[in-house]
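Notebook, student rotation project (T.W.).
Task set for the rotation: take a protein with a known small-molecule partner, predict the structure of the complex, and write up what can be learned from the model alone. Partner molecule chosen: S-adenosylmethionine. Sequence and SMILES entered below by T.W., checked by me.
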Amino acid sequence: MKMNDLELYFYHNDHRLIDKWSHYFEIYDQYFNKFRTKEIVLLEIGVFQGGSLQMWKHYFGSNSKIYGIDINPNCKNLEEDNIEIFIGSQSDRSFLKKIKQQIPQVDILIDDGGHTMSQQIITFKELFDHIKETGIYLCEDLHTSYQIIYGGGYRRNGTFIEYSKNFIDHLHGHYSEQSSLKTNSFTKSVKSIHYYDSIIVIEKAPWVEPQRSTIGETCITDYYQKPQGVKKIKWDLKKSLLLRINKILRLFKIKGFIWK
Ligand SMILES: C[S@@+](CC[C@H](N)C(=O)[O-])C[C@H]1O[C@@H](n2cnc3c(N)ncnc32)[C@H](O)[C@@H]1O
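Predicted structure of the complex:
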């Protein structure tokens, strides 16, 4: 199979050490390729020996601006032309807030840092709004969501995978009929979410309200069956509303309307 440019670079690398899983290169190239001709801003969390930052610089060309973040102060020595490195922790919200003041909005963010649950979630919460409106947020090594040592565990509360499952709901916030799910900034800025083995890619794009159209000639009589269970769903919604009202009434000790 023909190798893409990133694989060619990686497998022939005699510059600084790079630490990547081999199946990541196809995914990177699929989403990053379109940025290659542009003056892009890339931020990678997790510098290690500096090899991946050099790889991005080579892939995106000399017009790109590459930023790295690492907790290891020695990483500062790996700076070079167009590669700037900030020292601090990705789980330190005030540090990340300062970064946003120091670097322009980014086209591509890669989270390849410490891979613990809180690090991944805090980084997303703090930096997602610093991605350009057509940019990409990529978090890798998601398998740590299944590894106890990183705070992971299957369906365990607080893992990045469990946290990211909410993204699917927010993507559809516009269609929600319940106040617990509303259109929010995620709904209005995300075009797509892609899951791979150990990688999530979130593509941003300016939101356009979805339009449904029926175009063409009617040829047959409709035979449309209502989806099963519509009545039950409506009843469930009513029931949850009544339960909430009931709770408020109880809270204020108002008698006379206690519905069971
Ligand atoms: C997997 S390595 C990065 C590999 C590198 N991106 C590459 O492809 O060669 C992880 C790096 O994350 C850094 N790291 C660990 N915890 C961190 C934290 N809380 N904040 C920032 N960086 C952290 C480590 O010092 C280490 O250099």
